[in-house]
């Protein structure tokens, strides 16, 4: 029997299989892990400016006064650079004095005194400087500071160099430098510290590191003689720049001091080697 339209509205036919609400189809127990957003690493200005130097060779602790270290240096340089090997086989091996009679402090004073002077003139002034004290052992930071600039000038030291010597002694007296710390510092730190002393530049630091401290891996890129030796060794048309020196002598590491020493011998021989078959062990 058909129902009328009014009956359908008043009494609709019930739905036997009702569909659940859509929201009930998704279980409330299912969770999705939060997506982790990685923050970019932001370097500080100091980190951006500071270059990174990878450690390519082991740190050499022994000074060049050790015969074993000299032997190791010559073996390394012969294998690393065939051109330098010829020079090594031509000249006697380097000799670095093991004397402890001169302290680093007095050695730096000698460096300041000798600047732009001949060996004879600087030696004469140095002896007169020593005469101002009881003996060489009494040349200490405080005793040097007790000597007036006028007194230093009276023995032949210029007014400017007197200022340099007092600045060095002040940095020792203040604890900024000391003989013990100079010996223990690595090359980079030592360079920065000594460069802060008035009157001491890159060349002076490099000479001090090689011939006073006998550091094995120092390349004096500003030394005219070493640059001339590298120019002749590699057949360059002009003197190499400091950057060019660094690149050409990279293979000498960690014994660039010894390679530089042979450049002095090479230039002294005017770039003409004696009989290259004469080898020195």
SS-derived structural category: mainly alpha
Specify Rg, calculated over alpha carbons: 37 Å
The stretches of 5 or more residues where confidence is low (pLDDT under 50) are 22-33, 35-41, 45-60, 275-281
> What is the number of E strands?
0
Number of helices: 15
The CATH topology annotation of the largest domain reads as Endonuclease III, domain 1
CATH top level of the largest domain is: Mainly Alpha
Task: Kindly report the average pLDDT value.
Answer: 82
Q: How many domain units?
A: 2
Strand content: under 5%
Q: What's the main sheet like?
A: none
What share of the residues lie within helices?
40-55%
Distance N to C terminus? 126 Å
Order of helices and strands: HHHHHHHHHHHHHHH
Please state the second-level CATH architecture of the largest domain.
Answer: Orthogonal Bundle
Shape: elongated
CATH superfamily heading of the largest domain: Hypothetical protein, domain 2
Enzyme class: hydrolase
GO molecular function, one term: DNA-7-methylguanine glycosylase activity
Region (Disordered): 1-20
Keywords: DNA damage, DNA repair, Glycosidase, Hydrolase
């Amino acid at each position: 029997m058909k129902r009328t339209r009014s009956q359908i509205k008043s009494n609709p036919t019930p739905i036997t299989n009702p569909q659940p609400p859509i929201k009930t189809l998704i279980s409330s127990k299912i969770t999705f892990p939060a997506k982790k957003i990685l923050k970019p690493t932001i370097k500080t200005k100091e980190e951006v400016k500071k270059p990174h130097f990878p450690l390519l060779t082991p740190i050499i602790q022994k000074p060049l006064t050790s015969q074993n270290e000299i032997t190791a240096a010559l073996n390394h340089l012969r294998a690393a650079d065939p051109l330098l090997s010829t020079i090594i086989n031509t000249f006697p091996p380097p000799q670095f004095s093991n004397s402890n009679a001169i302290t680093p402090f007095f050695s730096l004073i000698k460096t300041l005194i000798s600047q732009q002077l001949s060996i004879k003139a600087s030696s004469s002034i140095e002896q007169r400087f020593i005469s101002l004290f009881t003996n060489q052992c009494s040349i200490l930071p405080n005793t040097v500071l007790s000597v007036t600039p006028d007194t230093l000038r009276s023995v032949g030291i210029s007014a400017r160099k007197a200022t340099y010597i007092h600045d060095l002694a002040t940095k020792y007296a203040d604890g900024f430098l000391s003989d013990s710390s100079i010996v223990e510092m690595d090359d980079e730190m030592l360079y920065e510290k000594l460069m802060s002393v008035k009157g001491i530049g890159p060349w002076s630091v490099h000479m001090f590191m090689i011939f006073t401290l006998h550091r094995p891996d120092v390349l004096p890129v500003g030394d005219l003689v070493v640059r001339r030796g590298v120019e002749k060794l590699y057949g360059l048309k002009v003197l190499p720049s400091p950057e060019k020196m660094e690149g050409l002598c990279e293979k000498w590491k960690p014994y660039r001091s010894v390679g530089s020493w042979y450049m002095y011998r090479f230039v002294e021989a005017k770039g003409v080697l004696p009989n290259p078959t004469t080898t020195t062990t």
